[in-house]
Design a protein that fits this description.
heterodimer; A: 215 residues; alpha/beta; Rossmann fold; 2 domains; 6-stranded mixed β-sheet; 4-stranded antiparallel β-sheet; B: 282 residues; alpha+beta; Alpha-Beta Plaits; 4 strands; binds adenosine-5'-triphosphate; binds magnesium ion
Chain lengths: 215, 282
């Protein structure tokens, strides 16, 4: 389903990750835990090929990073739901269109789009803000839009990069509830966090990373 | 393939970058306008030249000593020559009158005697080729003792005829320059829009959009801008031609197809400029 084999990626500055090997089974809950700068985001980026591994390989569904052409990368990414550490919302359109975008991309009919976007918005508790623009939302609300966008396509695997990073404990708790609900429905969840205590509070597998290597 | 999305996106692009949209449309119109003028001139060049040819004439100044019998004789001799359509006699008095009309001065106020010679205005038919025949014709007349001087009123005409030959080259050259300039300018404008949206484009890629999907709204936007530019030019040309024909009826013939060509050129121009611009990013 999702496998990393001896993945290495080094930035021009010399930082990066290496010898990263793990797999995530269907429906599994996995935390990637490590201090800031350990390489958590880089691991996730190597999965959706924002950074292509220079050694080793990543397998996402039927795609193997060794053989994926540039033209195929969008199709690999559609298998994944990605919640970026910095949200990466499209600030030129409202919440509804931010979420519907990933369905437009795959040519979903507009009837279906509407139903599924409203569903995803309800899942993250943001139904009442669908016509707001990202800049009109609080950090926690933007975080939830990012999650709604990641799940609307019903991906096999949800990658969430520090989804509670800069939220107060209550809001963080709500976000975690949302993610756990999605995981319960059978979606694998790989969540990167520096918060070891948070990871331990949930019944998931913990992968630890330090200085770009698993420990 | 979700065309509805792309079209909606293209229209929202319009409202997001109003100034660049106006610049693009203006540039497209400017280019199309030049294109149309070139086309209309090329199409009508022969027509304009023949029309002007029909008016060309030769002025023949008579020696001062001729009697009216001699003048009549000369007149009928000239009328008998090839290509001559009409010969008008302008007496010394009439010449003085026209001088006054033209320059506002009474010539007799300065000089006691009328210094202007009597003359014939000879109208030639269209067939008379002004380059060879006309100067032969003038030379032949000038050898006669009754004739003082022959003036070919063809300076302006000759320039025009030369222009008709050279102009096509110049026009096409100008056209190419304007074409390249406009393409460059529009591409740059669109490139700026795309550049401003780079962040958004990068995110779109990260959530699974293909390059073609991202490109499509930009192409449709370019196409629409070209279309609007085309319509504006069509109207401008239509009005201008109408005004021109009011002043000089029948001097221009503008085929209806020209308008469709303008529209088509606008659309393909806008489209290719966008394509050109976006190639750098996607
Ligand atoms: N684009 C980049 N260019 C160069 N170096 C980078 C780049 N992105 C990250 N790095 C470096 O790579 C290392 C790993 O970064 P990464 O973002 O993966 O850490 P992280 O574990 O996600 O940290 P955080 O918890 O702060 O998000 C860091 O030392 C970082 O400085
Ligand atoms: Mg990170």
């Amino acid at each position: 389903m999702l496998e990393l084999h001896n993945v290495k990626f080094i930035y021009p500055t010399g930082d990066g990750i290496q010898h990263i090997t793990f797999r995530i089974n269907p429906g599994e809950l996995v935390f990637l835990v490590g201090p800031s700068g350990a390489g958590k985001s880089t691991v996730l980026k190597s999965i959706f090929l924002q950074e292509r591994p220079t050694e080793g390989h990543v397998i996402v569904g039927e795609y193997n990073s060794l053989f994926v052409s540039r033209q195929e990368i969008p199709y690999l990414r559609r298998k994944l739901g990605i919640v970026f550490q910095d949200f990466k919302l499209l600030n030129d359109r409202d919440v509804f269109r931010n979420i519907s975008f990933v369905l437009e991309v795959i040519g979903t009919r507009s009837k279906v789009i509407k139903r599924r976007v409203l569903r995803a918005l309800a899942d993250v508790g943001l139904s009442h803000k669908s016509r707001k623009y990202p800049e009109e939302l609080s950090g926690g609300e933007q975080q939830r839009v990012a999650i709604a966008r990641a799940i609307v396509n019903e991906p096999y695997i949800l990658l969430a990069d520090e989804p509670t990073g800069n939220l107060d404990p209550d809001t963080a708790g709500e976000i975690m509830d949302v993610l756990m609900r999605i995981n319960m429905r059978g979606t694998s969840l790989l969540m990167a966090t520096h918060n070891f205590a948070l990871a331990k509070a949930y019944n998931g597998r913990i992968i630890r990373i330090e200085h770009g290597q698993l420990v | 393939m979700n065309l509805f999305y792309s079209v909606r996106e293209a229209f929202s692009g319009f409202t997001k970058a109003r100034i660049s949209m106006v610049i693009t449309i203006f540039t497209v119109s400017f280019f199309l306008f030049i294109l149309s003028i070139v086309a209309i001139l090329s199409l009508n060049m022969n027509r304009l030249v023949t029309m002007l040819n029909a008016n060309h004439d030769v002025q023949l100044f008579l020696a001062n000593t001729l009697t009216s019998v001699e003048i009549d004789q000369l007149r009928s001799d000239i009328l008998a020559m090839d290509d001559v359509v009409q010969v008008d006699y302008i007496s010394k008095e009439k010449a003085a009158e026209e001088f006054k009309k033209e320059f506002g001065d009474d010539i007799f106020a300065v000089l006691e005697e009328n210094p202007l010679p009597a003359s014939f205005i000879i109208k030639m038919n269209e067939k008379s080729d002004m380059k060879t025949n006309l100067s032969d014709f003038a030379g032949e007349l000038e050898r006669r003792p009754e004739v003082d001087e022959v003036v070919l009123h063809q300076g302006a005409l000759q320039i025009l005829v030369k222009f008709a030959h050279v102009s096509r080259v110049v026009l096409y050259l100008l056209f190419t320059l304007v074409f390249l300039g406009s393409l460059f300018m529009i591409s740059n404008t669109i490139r700026l829009i795309i550049f401003a949206r780079q962040q958004i484009i990068a995110t779109m890629k990260l959530v699974g959009a293909t390059d073609a999907f991202i490109r499509r709204p930009f192409l449709i936007e370019g196409l629409l801008q070209g279309f609007i530019g085309g319509v504006i030019t069509m109207l401008m040309i239509y009005v201008l031609v109408k005004l021109f024909l009011l002043q000089w009826p029948g001097l221009l013939l503008v085929p209806r197809e020209l308008y469709w060509i303008v529209l088509f050129a606008g659309v393909s121009f806008g489209f290719s400029a966008s394509l050109f611009a976006i190639r750098r990013f996607l």
